[in-house]
Amino acid sequence: MVDSFLFPQGPRGRSAQVSRGNVLLDATIRDFSGGWNVVDNDLNLSSKFAKTLQNMQRGIDGALNVRPGTELFADTSDHLDEIVNCEYYNNFIVCVGANGKIVRIDGTGNVKLIWDDNLASALKGNPSGWSTTTFVSFAQFNGDLILCNGVNKPLIINISMDVSYLQDLADLSNANTPIARFVVAHGRYLVMGGSLSVGEEDRLFISATDVGGTFVGDSSPNDAVNVDLGSRVPSGSNVIKGLGRFRDKLVVMFENATLIGTLGGFVDSAHVPVFDDAIENVGSISHRTIQTIGEDMIFGDRAGISNMKRALFTGNIQSDRASQLIDPAYLTSLAKVPATASQEDRIWSLWDSQSNNYMLFIPDTDVAADTTETRCLVYKKNTSLKIESWQDWRNWNFRSGCRSALKRIFLTEGANVFILGEEYEGGKRIFKDYEKQQEMWDDETSWADYTGWSPVADEKDSGVPIRFIWELPWSDNNKRYITKGSRYINFDTQGDNRFTAQMFTDNIFISRSDLGEDWQEDNLKWTDDLGWDVDVFDPSLEMVFEGGDAPGYGRDEYGDDYGGGRPTRLEKLIAWTTKYKLWKLRISGEATKELKFVSVTLAYQTGSIRR
User: CA–CA separation, 150 vs 241, rounded Å?
Assistant: First the structure.
C-alpha cells in the first residue's frame, strides 16, 4: 500500500489523471411547472423554474407557450372618455366612464348609452347623473346590478337594462341609501362600505333581508343595520379597504387586518351581525384585488399576495402567502404606486376561470396620465392538477376587465374594450396584441414599447408582436466541478414563430466591457466616459430557430421563412459547441404566431476539472 501523503504523485512519480468521458450525454428539460421565481438564487434553482418568464405561461398540456393576444371588441369613445371599470351582466358588458356616463355593449360589440345627465333627468324628480369618477364597484343582487362609486348615490340596473338610482321600494326614496365605494352581495343582504364621510370610514351598511334598497332609516318592515368595526380592528388603520365573500362568511379588509363576519343572526327580530374572528397583519391594498376562487380567496396586500382558505380539520379561516416566489417583483411594482388613492383606484385583479389564472394589474406610476404600462402578475392555480406557478405579462396598459358567462375575458384600455385570446384548441385563439386597433410598420416591427399605429388600414393584417423572454437558471448537469463540452441542441416545439436561443456559460451573463449606450443625437458620453447604463448580454452561443410547424422555404406563401432560423421540426443534429462548467439558456423573440415549447435537450461530453 502506498502512502499518498509521502507520494502525492503516485508511486511511479506520475500525476493522477481525471478520466474524461467519451460518451455523448444529454440533459432534457421538460418540466416547466415551477414558473417564475425571483426569490431564490438561480445557481440553486432547478430547471423547472424560470428567472424571467415574460409573456409566457404554463399551458394546460404542461408545455410552455406564449401568452394569448388581444383583439379590439368595442370602441366606446363616442360616449366615454376613459373606462374606469366594467362588469358583465345579463349578456351585456356594462362600462362606466370617468365622465360618469354608462354604456352597454352587446355580443357583437355594439355600444349603447344607458346613463348620462339627460337620461337621469327623465327619472321622477329630475335628478342629475353621476359626476366624474375614478372608481366603481359592482354587485349582482336579486337579479339586478348595483353600482357604487363613493361620490354619488348608488345606481341599479335591472334585467331590462334600465338605469335608476337605488332606492327603498316602499318610500320610493334614496334619502337613506348610503354613499359608499364598495358593494358586495352576501347571502340575502347587500353590503356597502368604504364611506368617504368623516366618522364613517369603518362603517358597514347592511340592507334589509332580501331587499337591496332598504337601509337604516327607511320605513318598516326593516331589519337593516349599520355596524362600526373600528374597535374590532386589532392593528393598523380602521379605514375599510375592501369587502369580499368567502363561503358563508363576509370578509372585511383593512390596511393591516381582516375581519371575518357572519350575517343572518337575529336577537328579538333585530339583525345582529357577528364578527368573532380577526386575522392580524393581513389586509388589502384595494377592493379590486379581491377574488373569491372556489375554496380560496386571493388578494393583494402591502407585503405580497395572500391566499385565504379554510383549515382542513377545524374549518377556521387561515391565510398564507401565495406570492413568496415573486415578492421582490411585486414590491418593486407596488413601490411605483405610492399614493394610497391610486392603489385603491387603479390596482385591480381578474380571475380567468378558463385558464385558472389570477391576474393582478399594477400600473407603473400613480399618475394615470403618465402611465405607460400596467404590469400583469399572473398566478396559475389548479388545485386538482397540483399546479401553482407565476408568470409576468408585460406590454399592456389595461385599467379594468370582466369575465363573461362563457368565461371569455374582456379588458379595457382608454375607451376601448378588448377580448383576450383563448388557450385551448378550438377556441378563439389570438397570437398578436391589439388586433383590429393597432398595426406595425411595413417591416413588421412596432414601436419600442410594443405599440403600433392606430387606426389600422387592414384589420386582417393588424396587431403588434408579443415580446417574450424565458430565462432558465444556471445548471451544472449535476457535475459542478467537471468541465463539459456542449455538442448539439434540440428543441421540441409547436407553432411556426421564430425565436432566438442564447447560451451563457460560467456566470458570464452581462458584458463587463460595455461602457453603455451613447446619446441618441451623437456619440458623446458622460464626463466619466460612460454611457447610459443599459445591460448588454454576453452569450457564448446564439442562434435563431423556427417553431416545429414552420413550413420552410418554398412552402411559405409570403416568404416569411426565407432566410429564417434552423427548423426545429427536423430530427437533425444542430451544432452547439462551447466549453462550460455552468450553463444557462435564454430564449426570446417577438410572437405573431403560435409558439409552444415542449422540451429542450442539450447534448454534451464531460471533460477534466480544468476549464
Answer: 12
CA dist., res. 299 & res. 335, Å (int) = 17
Amino acid at 502: Q
The set of residues, in sequence order, having a beta carbon less than 8 Å from that of 524 and lying 6+ positions away, is 518
- Determine the Cα–Cα distance for residues 186 and 208; give it in Å rounded to an integer: 12
Find the helix or strand (DSSP H, E) in which 334 lies.
helix 327-335
How many angstroms separate the CA atoms of 297 and 188, rounded? 20
Q: In what order do the strands lie in the sheet with 163-165?
A: 137-141, 144-148, 155-157, 163-165
Beta partners for residue 277, in sequence order: 260
Distance between CA atoms of residues 375 and 363, nearest Å: 6
433 DSSP assignment = B
The 10s digit of each residue's pLDDT in 117-153 is 999 999 999 999 999 999 999 999 999 999 999 999 9
Nearest to 240 by CA among 187, 178, 310: 178
Q: Are 274 and 265 in contact (CB under 8 A)?
A: yes
State the Cα–Cα distance between residues 347 and 359, nearest whole angstrom.
Answer: 11
- Report in angstroms the alpha-carbon separations of 417 from 162, 308, 359, 400, 401: 22, 31, 17, 9, 9
Residues in a beta bridge with 349: 360
The whole-angstrom separation of Cα 68 and Cα 463 is 13
Grid coordinates representing 154 are 348608488
Strand, helix or coil for residue 192: strand
Cβ neighbours of residue 5 closer than 8 Å, sequence gap 6 or more: none
Quote the distance between the C-alpha of residue 559 and its chain's center.
35
Per-residue model confidence (pLDDT) at position 277: 87
- Sign of the alpha-carbon torsion through 291, 297, 301, 303: negative
Closest CA to 297 of 315, 318, 279: 318
Q: For residues 79 and 66, is the Cβ–Cβ distance under 8 A?
A: no
Mean pLDDT for all residues in the chain: 89
The pTM score is: 0.91
* Bridge pairing between strands 357-363 and 374-382: antiparallel
Task: Tell whether the torsion through CA atoms of 87, 90, 91 and 97 is positive or negative.
Answer: negative
Give the pLDDT score at 4: 46
Q: Is 409 exposed, middle or buried (0-12, 13-18, 19+ CB in 10 A)?
A: buried
